[in-house]
Amino acid sequence: QAIRENQVSRYASQVSAYPAVRAFLLEMQRNLARTHDVIMDGRDIGTVVLPQADLKIFLTASVEERARRRMLELEERGTPEPYAAILRAIQERDWNDTHRDAAPLRQAEDAVLLGFSQLGSESAWRVGSTRSIEEAAERHGVSLMMLNAYQKQEKQIDAIRSFISYRVDVISFAPIVEDGWDTVLTEAKAAGIPVILVDRLITTEDESLYACFVGADFIKEGRSAGEFLLKKADAMGAKHLNIVEITGTEDSTPQRQRHQGFHDTIAGDERFTVLESISGDFLVSKGEECMRYLLDKYGEDIDVLYSHNDGMTLGAIDAIREYGLSPGSDIIIITVDGEQAAIDLLKAGEINCVVECTPNLGDSVMELAKKLAAGETVPKMSHPDEDVFTEFDDLSDLAPRGY
Ligand code: AHR
Description:
This protein is of the alpha/beta class. The longest helix has 19 residues, at 218-236. It is built from 14 helices and 12 strands. The strands form 2 sheets. It has a 6-stranded parallel β-sheet, sandwiched between helices. It has a 6-stranded mixed β-sheet with strand order 7-6-8-9-10-12, with helices on both faces. Helix 4 (63-76) crosses helix 5 (83-99), helix 7 (153-165) runs parallel beside helix 8 and helix 9 (218-236) packs parallel to helix 10 (253-266). 46% of the residues lie in helices and 14% in strands. Helix 6 links the parallel strand 1 and strand 2. The protein binds alpha-L-arabinofuranose. Alpha-L-arabinofuranose (AHR) binds at residues 122-123, 125-126, 199-200, 254, 282, 309, 311, 336-337, 357.
């Protein structure tokens, strides 16, 4: 118990910076492993003390989380300390341990530590994306430090800062919005850590702030949505169609580009009028709310709904049914993502077109991370292949979507 006291852990990293102390301990620890079966836990065990261990686990968490756990532990023991003081002490200790000359804290040479900041859990697509990253990390033997930002850019910035202080090999993140990343990415660049943008882009004057991007071509997705509408209007012999658009999170790449691709495609065609375009933030609940508002305002004048994701579309469909109209026939529905629930509604005739956006980027992210950690160059932009599913297609052989 006594060695777990706060005072001890505070002095441990100072004392262990002395080479003579480390040399003495090293021999003692190796001797233990020579003569016994051991499980050893410590900051340089896998890299210095027992580099040939049968199993090495590099386990880590953000400084904030460790400070929170430490605070609870001290409270339970009846020796509480303020969170800010604990946080500072952990930060200092990390810095001392990673920068000392004798046996510094670091991962084994052959390991790749990837810090990934997921932007939230706003949709089934996002949940699928998180799963894809976690499963791929395991398959590729990449150590993953994943933090969820719960839709807050400040939290993503904090996560990136803690990845930097952890000296991860590669940072990746799905930026919730495009603007506001230059400062933190300049810090990552100064620390020599390459950055992979996943799923969404950023706006910056300095393209060297990130090594590469992997994610969908959202302009193409918007164009596919527009092309379907042109085909549908031709098939119906429509003279005029009124469109409402429910967009994703404002200032995010899919919102900007899905809007642009769609509008560029139908621009100049006098059969179409866009009544209104509003943001539903990629959420089911807001999709429903937006559609109610649009129906109250335009009622049966609405001919087409173009929605930027399946989650919002599902919410909007509830609102359309509640209003007494039939989705897919009274209102043409065009959606993006390709969740199983949307494909089921497409097959049932309640959605007319689903533009695919795959959340399965995990394998590409891990391959890029391993190459970047090895100092290799990688392509600046890569997009997965994506499909479009419409009422004009035979979907009987379509495999289960998995998200
Ligand atoms: O960035 C991709 C988008 O984000 C998906 O289309 C949407 O469902 C998600 O929330």
